[in-house]
Amino acid sequence: MQQKSLNEYIEQIKNLVQSKNYIDCIELLHNAIRDFPQENKLKLNLGNIYKLVGKNSQAIDVYLSLINSDFSAFANNNLSLIYLELGEYDKSIEHAKNALDINDDYHDAKYNLALSLFEKKDYTESLSIAKNLINFESHKAKAYELKIRIEQLICDWSSYEDTNELLSKNKIIVHPFLHISHVMDNEKNQINARYWTNQLSNNKKDNSFPRPKSKIKLGFLCGEIRNHPTYYLIRNLFKHIDKEIFSVFMFSYNHNQTEKNEIVQYFTDFVDLDGLDDNDANKCLRDYSLDILIDLTTIISHNRQSILNDNSAKFIISYLAFPGTTGSSLYDFMLTDKTVTPGTQQNYFEEKFLFLPNTYQVNNGEVNITEITTRESFGLPADGLILGSLNQSFKLDPVLFEIWLQIIQKHDNTYLWLLDENDEMKKNINNFIGDRIDLKRIIYAKRLDYPEHLSRIQHIDIALDTRIYNGHTTSIEMIQSCIPLVTLKGNHFASRVSASLLEALNMDELITTNIDDYKETVSSLIENKTMRNKIKNTMRVQLKESSLLDIKLFAESFQKTILKIFT
C-alpha cells in the first residue's frame, strides 16, 4: 500500500477532529507519526487529542517527548495546564515558568501560572500576573475574573467601586458566581449569565411530557458529596424521598468514599461519573431515561454542566448550589421560594420557577454539638459581647464592613469574630480599619471540622449576615443555634436567602431592608440583653413549631413541588 503524503494525513486528521471522532483520530496520528517521525507538530496534536479525551497520562508522555523540540514552549504550557487540572500545582508552576523562559510573552502560560499560584494560595503573585494580563485583549476577560476572585478572597477593596461599575454596566463578562456577589440587579445578572453561557436566546425544549404511569425516574447530579455545605444540607433529604413514587439515582463526581457510604443505600443506583469524558457521561445519563434530573451543582466551580443537553432527561431542574439564574436554556425549572425569587422576577431567570411552600433551602435537621467549649479556647474574651460573621471572605464588602466598624466604635466591649481565610485578608482588613478601633477587637476563627465548628458558634451573641451574598449554610447554623441573625434583605436571590430562612421561622423582626435599619437593629440588640434573650427564647419555640428543620415535612413538600411539572 502506498504511503500517504503528509498533506493527506493532515486533511484526514482535520476531518476526524471536526466530526469529533477522536478514537480514529488518535490511531491516524500514530500512523502519521510513524511515517513522518520528524514532524513534531503531529506529536503536539496527538498530545492535544489525548488531553481532550481525558487521557492525561498519555498526553503527558507525548508532551514530555517534545520538551527539547521546537515546540518546547507549547509542550510546557500544555503540561502546566494538565498538572493544574490534576491538582499538582508545583509541577504546573514549574512547566509554566519553563514555557515563559522560552517566550516571556506567552500569555497562556502566564495565565496558567497565575491560576496555579492562586490554587497554592499565593494570592499576591497571582494577583500581580492577573493585573498584567488585563492589558492584553486575548486574556482580558479571564484575567479580570481572576483578579476579582482574588480581591474578594483577600478583602482587597482598593478597586471595589471600579469593579462594581464594570460589572454593573456589563462591560466585562465573568463567571455568574462573581457577578451575583457584586451586583444586586437581577436583569444585569441575567445578561451576564446569558453571555457567559453563550445563551443569548431563550429557546426551551418541549415541556409537555405526561406523568409516567410507573415509578418516576428521579436523578440527582452532584459534585459535592464530600465535606461541603451542599452535602451537609441535603444528605438527609435522600433518605425521605418516597421510593414508592420515585426510583432515585445519584450521578456523582468529585465525591469522597466516606460520604458516599453514608447515603448510597438511599438510591436505586449510585453512578460514578469520574473518569468519564463529557460524551460518555452524557450517554450514561441518557441510558437511564430519566424523567427528572436535578442538578445540585449547576455552574459553581468543578461543575459538569458540559455533560448536559436536551436529551439528558425529560426535565432538568436547577437547585440549591447557585442562587441565581444559570443563564442557560438547558434548565427547565429552578426550585425556589417566593421570598428569594418573587414571581415578579420571573423574566430575569431562564428557568421557570417551581415554588416550594416555605424556604427553598433544605436543612438536614441535625445539630450535633460534640462538646461544651469555653470562649477562651477560641481566643474570645470571657466577658465581651461577640458579633459573629463566620462567612467566607468573598461575601464581605466595604460598605457593610464600615457599618460594622461604626457599631463597634459606638459600643464598648464588643468584638467582631470573622473567619480566618488567609493572611492577606487579615492584613487588608487591618489596613481598612486603621486606628479607628483596637485591632484586638477583631478576632479570627480558623476553619474547624463541622462538629467543632457547631460547638464554637454557640459563643456568638449576635450573628451579622453579609449583604450582597448572604450566608446560606452559615445562616441556618446560627438559626439552629438560636442566635439572633440580623440580615439586610436585598434585591436579588443571593441577598434574600437569610430572609427566606427567618420568614420560615416567623422571625421577621430580624429582617431589615436598608442599612440604617440594619445598623439600628444590631445596636438595639447590643444594648438590650433582655431583647436578645427574648428573641433567643422565641427562636427556640418557633424552631419546634416550624417546618424549617423538619426534613420529613420538607421531603413531602419537595416531592409535591417537583411533581407539578407534569401538570
CATH class category name of the largest domain = Alpha Beta
Helical residue percent?
40-55%
* Overall number of structural domains: 3
Strand fraction equals 5-15%
Tally of DSSP helical segments = 23
Q: What's the pLDDT, averaged over the residues?
A: 94
Give a topology summary.
Elements: H1 6-18, H2 22-35, H3 40-52, H4 56-64, H5 72-85, H6 89-102, H7 107-119, H8 123-133, H9 140-153, H10 160-168, H11 176-180, H12 186-196, E1 216-222, H13 229-240, E2 246-252, H14 257-263, E3 269-272, H15 278-287, E4 292-295, E5 315-318, E6 333-336, E7 352-355, E8 385-389, H16 398-410, E9 414-419, H17 423-433, E10 442-445, H18 450-456, E11 462-464, H19 473-480, E12 485-488, H20 497-504, E13 511-512, H21 515-527, H22 529-545, H23 551-563
Parallel strand pairs: 1-2, 1-4, 2-3, 4-5, 5-6, 6-7, 8-9, 8-11, 9-10, 11-12, 12-13
Helix pairs in contact: 1-2, 2-3, 3-4, 4-5, 5-6, 5-7, 6-7, 7-8, 7-9, 8-9, 13-23, 16-21
Q: What does this protein look like?
A:
The protein has 567 residues and is α/β, with parallel strands linked by helices. It folds into three domains: 6-120, Alpha Horseshoe (Serine Threonine Protein Phosphatase 5, Tetratricopeptide repeat); 216-365 and 552-566, Rossmann fold (3-Layer(aba) Sandwich), CATH 3.40.50; 376-549, Rossmann fold, CATH 3.40.50.2000. Helices cover 46% and strands 10% of the residues. The protein has 23 helices and 13 strands. The strands form two sheets. The chain has a seven-stranded parallel β-sheet, with no helix packed on it. A six-stranded parallel β-sheet has the order 10-9-8-11-12-13, with helices on both faces. It is globular.
